[in-house]
Amino acid sequence: MFDIKTYLKPYNQPKQAQYEREINRTRELLSAVEGKSDYKYSDFIRRTAGQLLTLAELETKIDDDYFKRNAFEELKAGNQAFYADIIGERYAKSYANPKVSVAGFGEPMGQMLSYMAASVYPCIRAAYQHRTIDIVRIFAMFNRIAVNLLEGNKDSKAVHAVIRDSAAEDLQQRYELRYRMSMDPNNRFWADVADTVDLTDLRYLFRFGNYISDNELKLAEYLLTLPKKEIDSMAETMIDAFFRGIASANKSSEGKNAVTYYYQPGTERIVRAANILLREKGLQPTCTLDRSSGTSPNRQFDYDHKFDQALYMDEAYADTVIEAHAKAAEVVKDILSSYQGIIALESFGEQPFTPENKKEALKMSEAQRTAEIRQTNTVNQNANRYIDRKNYSFVIIAYPLPEIGGQFEAIFDETVKVNTLDSDKYAKIQQVIIDELDRGDYVHIKGRDSNKTDIRVKLFDINDPNKETIFENCVAEVNIPVGEVFTSPVLKGTTGRLHIGEIYLQELKYQNLTLDFKDGWIADYGCDNFKDEAENKAYVRDNLMHTHETLPMGEFAIGTNTTAYVMANQYNIVPLLPILIVEKMGPHFAIGDTCYSWEEDVKVYNPLDGKEIVARDNEKSLNRKTDINQAYLNCHVDITLPYHEIAAITVIGKDGSTSDIIRDGRFVLAGTEALNEPFDQKVKA
């Protein structure tokens, strides 16, 4: 088994002496508050110190034998115990809950102590992975904060300074390590488990420190029941799509040796089969379970802390990050230059979540958001000096979790079918749609019945119809399942209203979502989730619009996967599906960056006619030629209008002529009739 301790020694060893000092200091602070029940901060210090010390002790015990000598139930209980304070009703009393900390300590101290309490949880994964360089930083931050509290310093500025300093500490090493953990083919920490352990012994699921729920356990159990042939087929679907994407975009694997594999815990049997196929193709998988892999212990906790960087984000911090990242990228440039891309095996099926908007939770200011955008854009530029974007690729696929309901196994089987629909068949039908769209000046999308959508999307002008096209023919390459044609709209002239009665986006529900566009930019927005209109606007702005006051329309697409649409409605799981599938189930509009962001200069061609897709930029992204910070917004959110809410999708020619693609929820363009067949069939329930 791969020795992660030896691999991490260059990063951990220089911090070892400090780590031991910080652990001892935490013990001293814990002793200092024992018996001081009347002291305002004693319980916070006691609980947080106890959690950190428990994790430090765990880190010393973790080795390969640890998962052999401890019984399954012991490992499961330990996993639950580490996350217990933020699970279920206990979160209502947790200092990680900003409402609790602010109630106890006021603002802004309560928000900062809530941040400190929340910072413990990433240390769980760090302990299992022996990343003591990451743990020592959290110990040090806690110790400095606790000393300030014990010395009776009521000035929150001192605590704030500690948090700011901690956020900037060891940034270069942390960036280096992030790249090595996720992209270095020599790091076999995750891959060795997927490749070598006994997958029938579910103790392996606890090896990485991720929260393990019944979803992960039952998913692993179910995959063990499937014949090897079915597992191999699922793996082949992903890997074939990845390499088809490389071939169709005229990319190359020459000189590449690594792919990052993000996956849902519990799917290791598929991962094992996929790893074999990747190695046969000459690429090494660097499997990784990041912080978002698997079921969250508490989505409200995640929501409460989504803007915690508001405590330290400003122009100075952005400059610090940019400098540290540039140095880190130079150190690991060989890893970056030989990197081929990402394979993501995602999941869906968690029950819908409606968050509580807490006034105590941190929010980002417009100035902070501007600084963050500049930081992200510059960091991407630095990375792209070494990552060969012209030969970079990816693939994304998703399967259901057991939480989706009693028909999980049937839904899983139907999802496999949706993920393996005939790409060649769809490519031919979609080419018919593209040919019609290429003749258009605008596309007019109008809702029916209670849907108030009425919007005109301006299309890119084609100079040479024999060689150029404006819509990409998207089949099951890189983005599975099959089924859409998409373009980057021209912003000027794209005007009207998009309205969806009920939709779930990024796991959040929106009731009567409306976005009004003027010349391609959101001019007004709202929803009916709350009684207060201001709260509705804040909900849309902070979540859907990623705190921006406005966003451009970065994509317009027509989804053609009517099979997925029928399956989703037959099992009543539309709210539980990922956007990966939902975007194929009707026309969709993406707000934010275009689909080609950061790769606009990479020429892309459609598979059947060989025409170049020339609508890769819009007026926003073209700013990259003069000021990169004015080109990208670092978000892209797809919003799908379901077929049954469509009165018409009509192509309007430059001469005013019209041609319907869809009328009353059905495809009516000649040559697309086969797309209506699933509407007249029923999925076997």
Helicity range of the residues?
40-55%
Our estimate of the beta-strand percent is 15-25%
Output the number of helix runs: 24
Number of strands: 19
Low-confidence stretches: none
Strand order of the largest sheet: 12-11-10-6-5-17-18-19
Q: Give average pLDDT, whole number.
A: 93
Query: How can the largest sheet be summarized?
Result: 8 strands, antiparallel
Radius of gyration, whole Å: 26 Å
Class per helix and strand makeup: alpha+beta
What best-fitting shape do the alpha-carbon axes yield?
globular
C-alpha end-to-end distance: 44 Å
Tell me about this structure.
The chain contains 24 helices and 19 strands. The radius of gyration is 26 Å and the shape is globular. The protein is of the alpha+beta class and 685 residues long. The model has no long low-confidence stretch (mean pLDDT 93). A hairpin with a 4-residue loop joins strand 17 (646-653) and strand 18. The strands form 4 sheets. An 8-stranded antiparallel beta sheet has the order 12-11-10-6-5-17-18-19, with helices on one face. The protein is 42% helix and 18% strand. Helix 9 runs antiparallel to helix 10, helix 12 (189-196) crosses helix 15 and helix 14 (228-248) crosses helix 15 (268-280).
